[in-house]
Amino acid sequence: MAKPEDSEKRGAGPASWLAGELGRTDPGSQAWSLMHWVMGTDKHRMFAMAQEFDLAPQQMIALRMLGAGPRKMSELAQALFCDNSNVTGIVDRLEERGLVRREAAEGDRRVKLLVLTKEGERIRIEITKRMAEPPPPIASLSEKDQRALRDILKRAVEGITDAAAAKALRVG
């Protein structure tokens, strides 16, 4: 059976990921690389969750984003980093499933807003609950370590302004 350090020698482990690949040894780069490693090795969970709900990953993300309230199709396209024609297909499939509906915007009936249906909101809440569960590498840490990790990350995000967060997350 291969040992974890064997996979790292081949370039498949956290020590060789991002910063390690470049030989960067500063703690910030190493921490960032480790966060990427945890998220990257957990993406199978998100794909499995999408499959469980019979959704494509982008459809699942679209539902999450619509939880903030009705959005224009163009805003959703921006948030999903895709063009309007791609978001039309995503929304068409969500609408066929009865998870979203298109409504005319007040003041400009040409603009269509996307609104979650009751079933869409129910599934969005379930997805949110599941996504909020920490992945096994985080969940297996002691409560003390989880608290320390949380507190460090809270300090890291304190410098992110609301405007920068809204722009990055394409909210509002």
Describe this structure in words.
The protein has 172 residues and is mainly alpha-helical. It is 62% helix and 10% strand. The chain has eleven helices and three strands, in the order αααααβααββαααα. It has helices at residues 4-9, 19-22, 27-41, 43-52, 57-66, 73-79, 84-96, 118-132, 136-139, 143-157, 162-169, and strands at residues 71-72, 100-105, 108-116. Strands 1-3-2 form a three-stranded antiparallel sheet. The longest helix has 15 residues, at 27-41. The termini are far apart. The model is unreliable at 1-10 (pLDDT under 50).
For the biggest β-sheet, the strand order reads: 1-3-2
Class from secondary-structure proportions: mainly alpha
For the report, how would you describe the main beta sheet?
3 strands, antiparallel
| SSE ordering | HHHHHEHHEEHHHH
User: How many H/I helices?
Assistant: 11
Straight-line N-to-C gap: 51 Å
Mean pLDDT over the full residue set: 87
Q: Roughly how many Å is the radius of gyration?
A: 20 Å
Low-confidence stretches: 1-10
The beta-strand count equals: 3
